[in-house]
Amino acid sequence: xxxxxxxxxxxxxxxxxxxxxxxxxxxxxxxxxxxxxxxxxxxxxxxxxxxxxxxxxxxxxxxxxxxxxxxxxxxxxxxxxxxxxxxxxxxxxxxxxxxxxxxxxxxxxxxxxx
Length: 114
Prior knowledge:
There is one protein chain. This protein has no helices and 10 strands. It is mostly beta strands. It has a single domain (5-113), classed as Metal Binding Protein, Guanine Nucleotide Exchange Factor, Chain A, CATH 2.170.150.40. A hairpin with a 2-residue loop joins strand 2 (14-18) and strand 3. It starts with a strand and ends with a strand. This is DUF427 domain-containing protein.
């Protein structure tokens, strides 16, 4: 697997939903592609209703992006643990993702172009 990362503007309007609610919508999202992995959409933090996010203790390190901080999504009926992440101080090569949030997609969290 190649470790090359590319970042480009994600064309169109993107939305993230959880617990039956829209957490964010953006026409300024970024698409990050890393090797053979599926692309990940990064939303500008300003386009996300961060009141629904709680800080998590989880942290990970990627040698190509830096240290990631995680957030849990709090909905009316449940907390979706460690379902969003952000690189607060990314490595220079991927600096465009600073101040952006990405989401683990699942049956509970969806990210889609609308």
